[in-house]
């Protein structure tokens, strides 16, 4: 029985119990959302290492990380290392988008080790096995999907909404069809003159998914690849088909989420999310970005995190991260880390704005630690503790600096929080001397005098290369 079938029958599963605990809601609340199709618990019955999680607008915003090899680069060890990095830095789900060698071994290793749901795009393996996209048969496609379901994959991107009738609608586009799955299927449809095989065989795919409780991630194969193509007829024609397929999957008892764009100008994002929710009857929306500008290759984790924040605010349930390598190359471990940081910020910012239970408490705890100069607590609470500690220690490396009431950003004389605190404590706020130009001479205050850096903590090596040395500067003053 799938999670959806169980929920409809009024059964609270172990996975729902666990999800309720993680989200701090009642199991019944989870069951109701799953029964209505407003939330999914990707949870293949063969994925034994999984710690169940939920994706839905009624819960915290989730983040997916894409990993995977390509023909040009990467092997199984580096893929497992990327999986580890993704989970370590907070990915809620991981998609294995491998298109290179050892596909089965990499997939099986990922499922065996991953505590988070694993997603795949089976059309990639179908192309590898067929040798050419146009040679894919219906039987081969179903065989690949069934095999991956049996390997424990929790959700699969199925680009069943790319229909023969939609392809002419992409003709005037600036960047054509940019989805890998979408472009493969479009070529197959054009060469064979037949309907999309994933659409034609959708009922049979549903039967496979029911058996293993695989969740659909209905792919947006016609998503816009640039701002100019956003919101065109092709994108919305496919969305209408995804709405139809959502209802078909639900009728089979299969869980569904729906994928979204892409590249979308900021002012269109909320409207597009709202449209998806209406067309797909509230099925969870899983968005890639969207990128809000096309002009920043190398920084697309930022351009897309801005759009992702807006999308989450408007109702998207899961954000697919984008790394700095987007459009440029295969992400490495450091790119996975950067992409995840950007997207966890986006998800959290939306959760804070939406008033999700416990979200703001994190910000408040970190701010209190910051104002108290409790550096260790501040690092501990940071979204990426290693990065926070590393940046702090680059200029103030001694242990004692973790007790200091300043950092190298403003320096000892101009640390505003220290000045503020001391002024409040001593009542000297109104007595701070000025130099006649109405500029505050904070170094002349009694508060500054008592807050010189601890003696003997300077790393001499750090000052040799020109690194600012606050103690020396203060003495020279
Ligand atoms: S020196 Fe500036 S940045 Fe550093 S703790 Fe003080 S106020 Fe904050």
UniProtKB/TrEMBL annotation:
Chain residue ranges for the region called Disordered: 1-25, 426-477
Cofactors (names): [4Fe-4S] cluster
InterPro entries according to UniProt: ThiC, ThiC/Bza_core_dom, ThiC/BzaA/B
GO biological process, one term: thiamine diphosphate biosynthetic process
Annotated pathway: Cofactor biosynthesis; thiamine diphosphate biosynthesis
EC numbers on record: 4.1.99.17
Binding site for Zn(2+): 263, 327
Record field: compositional bias (Acidic residues): 428-438
Keyword vocabulary terms for this entry: 4Fe-4S, Iron, Iron-sulfur, Lyase, Metal-binding, S-adenosyl-L-methionine, Thiamine biosynthesis, Zinc
Reaction(s) the record says it catalyses: 5-amino-1-(5-phospho-beta-D-ribosyl)imidazole + S-adenosyl-L-methionine = 4-amino-2-methyl-5-(phosphooxymethyl)pyrimidine + CO + 5'-deoxyadenosine + formate + L-methionine + 3 H(+)
Binding site for [4Fe-4S] cluster: 407, 410, 415
GO MF annotations, alphabetized: 4 iron, 4 sulfur cluster binding; phosphomethylpyrimidine synthase activity; zinc ion binding
Stretches with biased composition (Basic and acidic residues): 15-25
Superkingdom: Archaea
Binding locations of substrate: 66, 95, 124, 159, 179-181, 220-223, 259, 286
Cofactor binding description: Binds 1 [4Fe-4S] cluster per subunit. The cluster is coordinated with 3 cysteines and an exchangeable S-adenosyl-L-methionine.
One Pfam family cited in the UniProt record for this chain: ThiC_Rad_SAM
PANTHER family hit by this protein: PHOSPHOMETHYLPYRIMIDINE SYNTHASE, CHLOROPLASTIC, THIAMINE BIOSYNTHESIS PROTEIN THIC
Role according to the record: Catalyzes the synthesis of the hydroxymethylpyrimidine phosphate (HMP-P) moiety of thiamine from aminoimidazole ribotide (AIR) in a radical S-adenosyl-L-methionine (SAM)-dependent reaction.
Family, as annotated: Belongs to the ThiC family.
Protein known as: Phosphomethylpyrimidine synthase
Species this protein is from: Haloarcula limicola
Gene: thiC
């Amino acid at each position: 029985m799938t999670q959806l079938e169980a929920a409809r029958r009024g059964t609270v599963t172990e996975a729902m119990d666990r999800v309720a605990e993680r989200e701090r809601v009642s199991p019944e609340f989870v069951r109701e959302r799953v029964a209505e199709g407003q939330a999914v618990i990707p949870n293949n019955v063969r994925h034994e290492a999984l710690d169940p999680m939920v994706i839905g607008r009624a819960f915290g915003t989730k983040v997916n990380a894409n990993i995977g090899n390509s023909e040009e680069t990467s092997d199984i060890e580096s893929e497992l290392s990327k999986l580890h990095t993704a989970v370590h830095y907070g990915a809620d789900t991981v998609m294995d988008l491998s298109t290179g060698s050892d596909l089965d071994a990499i997939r099986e290793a990922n499922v065996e080790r991953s505590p988070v749901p694993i997603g795949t795009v089976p059309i990639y393996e179908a192309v590898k096995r067929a040798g050419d996209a146009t040679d894919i048969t219906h039987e081969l496609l179903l065989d690949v999907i069934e095999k991956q379901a049996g390997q424990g994959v929790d959700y699969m991107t199925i680009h069943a909404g790319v229909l023969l009738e939609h392809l002419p609608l992409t003709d005037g586009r600036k960047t054509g069809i940019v989805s890998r799955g979408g472009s493969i299927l479009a070529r197959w449809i054009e060469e064979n003159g037949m309907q999309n095989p994933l659409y034609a065989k959708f009922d049979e795919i549903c039967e496979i998914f029911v058996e293993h409780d695989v969740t659909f991630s209905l792919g947006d194969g016609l998503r816009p690849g640039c701002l100019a193509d956003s919101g065109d007829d092709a994108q919305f024609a496919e969305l209408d088909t995804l709405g139809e397929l959502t209802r078909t999957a639900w009728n089979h008892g299969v869980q569904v989420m729906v994928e979204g764009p892409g590249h979308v100008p900021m002012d269109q994002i909320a409207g597009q999310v709202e449209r998806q929710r209406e067309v797909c009857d509230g099925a969870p929306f899983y968005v890639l970005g969207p990128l809000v500008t096309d002009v920043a290759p190398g920084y697309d984790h930022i351009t897309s995190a801005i759009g992702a924040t807006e999308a989450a605010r408007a109702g998207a349930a899961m954000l697919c991260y984008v790394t700095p390598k987007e459009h440029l190359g295969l992400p490495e471990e450091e790119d996975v880390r950067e992409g995840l940081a950007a997207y966890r910020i986006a998800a959290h910012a939306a959760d804070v704005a939406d008033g999700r239970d416990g979200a703001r408490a994190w910000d408040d705890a970190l701010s209190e630690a910051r104002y108290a100069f409790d550096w260790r607590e501040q690092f501990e609470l940071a979204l990426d503790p290693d990065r926070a500690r590393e940046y702090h220690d680059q200029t103030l490396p001694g242990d004692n600096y973790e007790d200091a009431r300043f950092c190298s950003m403003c320096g000892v004389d101009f640390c505003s929080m220290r000045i503020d605190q001391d002024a409040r404590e001593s009542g000297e706020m109104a007595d701070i001397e000025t130099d006649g130009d109405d500029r505050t001479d904070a170094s002349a205050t009694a508060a500054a005098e008592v807050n010189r850096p601890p003696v003997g903590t300077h790393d001499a090596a750090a000052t040799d290369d020109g690194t600012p040395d606050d103690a020396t500067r203060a003495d020279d003053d």
